[in-house]
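__Record contents__

***
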Amino acid sequence: MTTTRTVSKPLMILLRAARRLWVRVALMALLAVIASTLAMLFEDAIPAAVKDRIQPDAVMPILTILASGMLAVSTFSLNVMVSAHNAAASQATPRVHRILLADTTTHTALATFIGAFVYALTSIILLKAQLHGPGASVAILGVTVAVVVLVILAMLRWIDHLSDLGSMDNSLRVTEAAARSSLMQSRTTPALGAQALTDATLMPENADPILAPRSGYVQFIDLHRLDRILERHDARLYVHVAPGAPVLEGRAIAHAAGLPAAQRTQVQGCLTISDTRTFEQDSAFGLLVLSEIASRALSTGVNDPGTALDVINRQERLLWHWSRTPPNDAEPVHDRIFVRPVNAADLIESAFGSIARDGAGLIEVVDRLLDALGALSQSADIALSEAAGDMASHARSHAEDALPLATQRARQAGAAPEQRAP
């Protein structure tokens, strides 16, 4: 029997902060200042002969070159990053910009460049102000050599990364990775580690409604904190909206049984609602972003069916692996909370609904889409299999109206999903 793991809201905030560019840059800059300042602590351990050999005049030109060079490199790299992200957003989908902002390679390169600049600038100021002792130049030179090595390694990695940054292949690859992470979470942690809320779940008649504190999308549900609130009163909570669902302020999004009014307000604080969808707990969002890329590629202004075919391949692969992964059979960690589980029909709709509509007039897209749906209709997950079969019928109806040739329409109308399974 496997175990479930869920993330608390404070940890989620830390993880989000770690993916922000300025956080890593600020940490590297802080380390640079610390390294420059600590040089004063080691000057007494340096032999006198070495102190006499390496004077501040020997270190100052290196620091000056490092400071001016890193300022130029940092500015250039930021311009490249912004241009690449704008290009990816324009040719793929604006939603991919949020994924690219969390790119650790870009963060590390920029943090190294700016950190090196801050280190060099700090060391120059301390040397010019004569705050260092006579032996500090040796320590500063040693740290400077280490910083230069880090900068060279970061440049080599950054140059290799630039060859792919902002390309369609990179956008598809990072989006698929984000989609796989959130999608597989619904298998390893069913219903986010809570009880599954289904149509057969009996909710007490005296349960009090929990109203949405604001309008937006449900991004995150802090089940750890909810469990602690409910445990003190032996209460039960029934959450009707899953992460990714749009909610309106003042509408009921959950019901609580046995929970006082003051604690019901605390429950509202456990739900993160914002203007955009995120990947942490939203299993279908990655599939939707991939389908948006395909829809834009199928627009008349772009006319790139090859990208749509690539997206179908990726969607098929993601859902096939999802269906073949055994659901976690462990007892729910948060047995006082009921959350709606992932709906296979929603996954299929998010992945292929817009492609079936926008690619209905292209025979190669229709054929590949029906092939993928035929394979998924033979998957081990019954709900996914049925949803794939329904989507195949839906796609065939779109194709019947949109395909230009009668022979193409007749071929698609006479094909059955089973015939397309591998």
